[in-house]
Design brief:
Blueprint: H1 6-20, H2 36-43, H3 48-54, E1 57-70, E2 73-80, E3 83-90, H4 91-104, E4 110-119, E5 125-136, H5 152-157, H6 159-165, H7 167-189, E6 193-194, E7 200-201, E8 213-216, E9 221-225, H8 230-238, E10 243-251, E11 263-272, H9 276-295, E12 299-302, E13 305-308, E14 314-317, H10 318-326, H11 336-345, H12 357-368, E15 377-380, E16 392-393, E17 396-400, E18 402-407, E19 410-417, H13 422-437, H14 448-455, E20 461-467, H15 468-476
Parallel strand pairs: 3-5, 6-10, 14-15
Antiparallel strand pairs: 1-2, 1-4, 2-3, 4-5, 7-9, 8-9, 10-11, 11-20, 12-13, 15-18, 16-17, 18-19, 19-20
Length: 494
């Protein structure tokens, strides 16, 4: 049987008292005429005397956040979506019955106030109540006002309380959709079309990741939640749509840490007749547009680093970046045995499925370079072994026309000059299956329908995938992905 605290029992008793007065403790709709932001924007510049003479009436609603009563009058702050506004209430203005409701209200209750806008002797903008309207009785008390939810896990688990008590959490909740809307406007203005593609799929394609598996009962078919958006979008290029993008939830059954959540938001975009350089320009322009239009600044403090988004961003090949840090030139031709010897010399463990020069190059990059890329950097020229969907570099087929964007030592985007040769693509898929046999449980399946689509002809194209959550982390200067996702994945309580 559920047990209640003393405070909860008192609140339930007050709830019954409201019913006995013929009132619904959980309220009904009400016609509001203003809010805390509108009142502050409109009346902050007025003097106390001007407000007293004009007596501008408003009806607002919000949650009681604090209460200060003395005899037959008192103050309280109520919180709406924009912030707090002070209320003054006295028995002479609202009458005994409504003042009694105010006396018995609790922090967390939701109320409406009709009154006129004024300023106190200290200049605080206030609504002088002429009517007090009970809306919703809060049956649980709010956390202690100065500390809120101090348990970080509880903040994420009970996001609704976090939004009440934590101004930063609420700010991020409102700024995230503004960022996404800015991205959509940016893409739309460049001729891209936003589309939707399936979340349920029967194949693992488009990324190297472990999936979430499910089962379709009617079709008696095992299915996966998508790990990427790529192949359906490229089918649309075959169909002639030429410039498409999708912002959507993606799912990977992998570890959790401050930068990863099992379900996350990606944007992938594909542009016919473009290439890697065009994707770099698009990305640089998009980030700078968000910085300018949404935040009005180009410098951000993220994870202990000062990040500058203005100007031209650095562009460097993976092999050159490794050479800068280690002196090893992986552009030179070398055998697998030579690469394995280098890995051994540098204490880099190599799994069975990684025994190729390309994989070893990537292991060197991860050990020596990745975390050093603080300012925005386009790192290009990935080995073909780790890029199964990417066009080969025509000057050196050991490498591909691919880049990743790194900021603050973390990956923010992954882009290709897209592979549109169906013969080459099938060979890449087949090599992925060989890697799976050697223990790579993130290898791609063969998507024969996609091969058939390429056989109809896909135009040369550039493509890119962005982690939207990490992008929001940068712009809101948040260090955990769970701060920018309203409902992050959490282990259930016992």
């Amino acid at each position: 049987m559920r047990e209640f605290t003393e405070q909860e029992l008192v609140r339930r008793e007050k709830c019954e008292n409201l019913r006995n007065l013929g009132m619904d403790p959980f309220g009904h709709s009400i016609n509001l005429t203003s809010n805390s932001k509108e009142i502050k924007d409109k009346y902050e510049s007025f003097t106390k005397e001007e407000l007293e003479s004009s007596k501008n009436e408003v009806t607002i609603a919000g949650r009681i956040m604090n209460k200060r009563r003395s005899g037959k009058a008192g103050f309280m702050d109520i919180q709406d979506k924009f912030g707090n506004i002070q209320i003054y209430i006295s028995i002479s203005d609202v009458g005994e019955a409504e003042y009694e409701l105010y006396k018995n209200c609790d922090l967390g209750d939701i109320i409406a106030i009709t009154g006129w806008v004024c300023k106190t002797n200290t200049g605080a903008l206030t609504v002088h109540a002429t009517k007090y309207i009970h809306l919703v009785k809060a049956l649980k008390p709010l956390p202690e006002k100065f500390h809120g939810l101090t348990d970080i896990e509880e903040r994420y688990r009970r996001r609704y309380v976090d939004l009440i008590m934590n101004d930063k959490a609420k700010e991020i909740a409102f700024i995230r959709p503004k960022i996404i809307r800015c991205i959509q406007n940016f893409m739309d203005n460049r001729g891209f079309v936003e589309v939707e593609t399936p979340i349920l799929t029967t194949l693992l394609t488009g990324a190297a990741a472990r999936p979430f598996a499910t089962h379709h009962n009617t079709l008696d078919l095992d299915m996966y939640l998508r790990i990427a958006l790529e192949l359906p979008l490229k089918r649309l290029l075959v169909g002639g749509m030429e410039a498409v993008y999708e912002i959507g939830r993606t799912f990977r059954n992998e570890g959790m840490d401050p930068k990863h959540n099992p379900e996350f938001t990606m944007m992938e975009a594909y542009l016919a007749y473009s290439d890697l350089e065009d994707m770099m320009d698009l990305t640089e322009d998009m980030y700078q547009t968000i910085a300018r239009d949404v935040f009005g600044k180009m410098t951000y403090n993220w994870c202990g680093n000062e990040i500058h988004l203005d100007g031209k961003w650095k562009r460097i090949s993976m092999t050159d970046a490794i050479k800068e840090k280690t002196g090893i030139d992986f552009k030179k031709e070398m055998s697998v045995e030579e690469a394995l010897d280098l890995a051994k010399e540098h204490n880099i463990p190599v799994e069975e499925h990684q025994k190729s020069v390309g994989h070893i190059i990537n292991l060197f990059f991860e050990k020596y370079v990745e975390e050093t890329l603080i300012e925005p950097t386009f790192l290009y020229g990935h080995p073909i072994e780790i890029s199964p969907l990417t066009k080969k570099d025509p000057e050196d087929p050991r490498f591909t026309q691919r880049f990743e964007l790194f900021i603050g030592g973390k990956e923010f985007a992954n882009a290709y000059t897209e592979l549109n040769d169906p013969i080459d693509q099938l060979e890449r898929f087949e090599s992925q299956l060989k890697e799976r046999d050697l223990g790579n449980d993130e290898a791609n399946d063969i998507d024969m329908d996609f091969i058939e689509a390429l056989e109809y002809g896909m135009p040369p194209a550039g493509g890119i995938g962005y982690g939207i959550d990490r992008l929001v982390m940068l712009f809101t200067e948040s260090e955990s992905i769970r701060d920018v996702i309203l409902f992050p994945t959490m282990k259930p309580k016992d």
